[in-house]
Amino acid sequence: MNPKDQRADALHNRAAILAAAHDLLLHHETVSMNAIAKKAGVGPGTLYRHFATREELILELYCHDVQHHADTVDHLLEEMEPLAALRVWIEQLAIYTRMKHGLGEALTKAAEKSVVQRTYPIVIQALSSLLKAASDAEQIQPNILPDDVLLLVSALWRVPQDQAGLKQAERLLDIILCGLR
Questions:
Q1: Which segments constitute the HTH tetR-type domain (predicted)?
Q2: Taking a C-beta distance cutoff of 8 angstroms, is the pair 69, 96 a contact?
Q3: How far apart are CA 118 and CA 96, in angstroms?
Q4: What is the architecture, at CATH level 2, of domain 54-180?
Q5: Architecture field, domain 1-52
Q6: How do the domains of the chain map onto residue ranges?
Q7: Full-prediction pTM beyond 0.85?
């Protein structure tokens, strides 16, 4: 069933499950479905009605989080100059993606393809908005393709997850933004 077609209480339960899963999986990738249900304040049956498998829950959580990140674009553009907003958005995307690499076992090859098909357009639209704003403000070259920028920034979540890797990601982002100017 499409979440938008659910009753208000079912939507509330679904949101509570996603929030609980987000909190728990952030720190422990092996947390049980029962622990997620308990933290969400729902019974296991309710959790399994919404998400039949752990993998389904993790994939939906990933898609939900990507949408939430994409939704930050307007706020960032209201708060700062377009190029600064672009930098912050890319940094946050890289942090999130590095963090989610720990869920690799749950994201099987078939599921990854499905998730990419669901989230890629969302990310490209958000990135397009940021690039247009920066271009309109003459902070970057015009007509830069978001697909190209996304491919470039994918290097940011491939760095080691230690302090040296984070410093390297910062340097790489400086190089990418310099190239966009």
A1: 11-69
A2: yes
A3: 17
A4: Orthogonal Bundle (1.10)
A5: Orthogonal Bundle (1.10)
A6: 1-52, 54-180
A7: no
